[in-house]
Amino acid sequence: MAFRFLHLADLHLATVFGGRPETKARLRDATLEAWDAALELAIGEELHAILIAGDAFDDPDLDRRVELHFRRGIQRCAEAGIHVLYCCGNHDPGGAAFRAAKLDLAGEADWQQRVHLFAKATPKAVTITDAEGDDVGIVVGVGHSKVGVDVDLVAKLGAQDTELPVVGLVHTQVTGARSSEDHAVYAPSTRESFLQAGFDYWALGHVHRRQQVFEDLPVWYAGNLQGRSPKPSEGGPKGGLVVELEAGVPVEPRFVAFAPVTWERATIDGLEAAATTAALIEILQQRVETIASGAEGEVCVRLIPTGPCPMSYALWNETERKELEQELTETTSAIEVQLRPDGLHKPRDLDEIRATPSVVAQTLQLIEEFRSGARDVSDLPIEHLAMEESGIDADSRREYLVTLLEGLEETYLNRALKVDA
Ligand SMILES: [Mn+2]
Fold first, then answer.
1. Both ends of the chain: CA-CA distance in Å?
2. Cα 279 to averaged position of ligand 1 atoms, centre (Å)
3. Which residues of the chain register pLDDT less than 50?
4. Could you say which of 60, 299, 326, 330 is the most buried, measured as most Cβ atoms within 10 Å of its Cβ?
5. pLDDT at 388
């Protein structure tokens, strides 16, 4: 019989979000709705357990109503016969002085017997039973007792002497995990840390990008429950992993989206024709709607306009940009639209730039002369070109230089003419 559970992580309840006041409020509620949706699934599918891999809430001084909402959810689940296993992370350390320890999860009530908080660096193993009282699996967990844990908690978990499937539950930064650079290095672990215990599944939290960390090991980040910002690792569908585990059998977790709001980001070019505010807005609106129709539920969009645009000055000016963002938010189905005009520039008449005497024109001419071979490069020191030290003739030197010059005009013009708004 398989051990069936839901792996959640990084709920970050009660986060103080960025963005417009309406968006902030919506995301705060959306995070709670995602939590409720996760519970619905666990109860509906009669799972054996919910595993929460740390950072359940964002701040040690979180909103009291959020705390109560979170606790009620745990209670509801446990009353339905589902075990709730929650290990503390860096945002919700388990030491006596912190909030996680004061959630009042331990006690004499029947439901509390199914709730386990891993608050300390000393590992605990919990045997999970099904509705008939039969053992189905073991969860070995360990927690952050304070902020700034710098020891490898994963390495503390040792092999279990059992026939049951075993799961490790830890909030850790695995070296080399994708998007780990977005997070502080707390409780760092490495591939070696996971090998010694030989567990059937690792339910991890901390890195917000959902992923199997190592191709050949059952080490998984569930990712966060609700995307928080336009960062790539916060984008796309967010939710949890449903796992059906049998000892020694390779596992294929099933992702289920719970987040009501999705963050999307996209560059947009082809703005040469946007010569008026109305024309610009229309192009941007269409793009936002295309993105919104491709996403589930509500969507927050960050657009990155790029390339030539006659209205670039309006996008560069902060006041005007905010007005455009407001207009797009109100006239599209996205609940928030942000504009970041990186790489945007006024349309350029290259012939005119070349024909007008200036440093820019001279630079373009130099690039062209090097490229065409009109300028002799035989006496260019090879160390200036960062070339290999071996008898290189003028032809291959020029060919090499041409590869270095590729796309240089565009990069140079973007920099040199940036202030020319
Ligand atoms: Mn964390």
1. 68
2. 44
3. 419-421
4. 299
5. 66
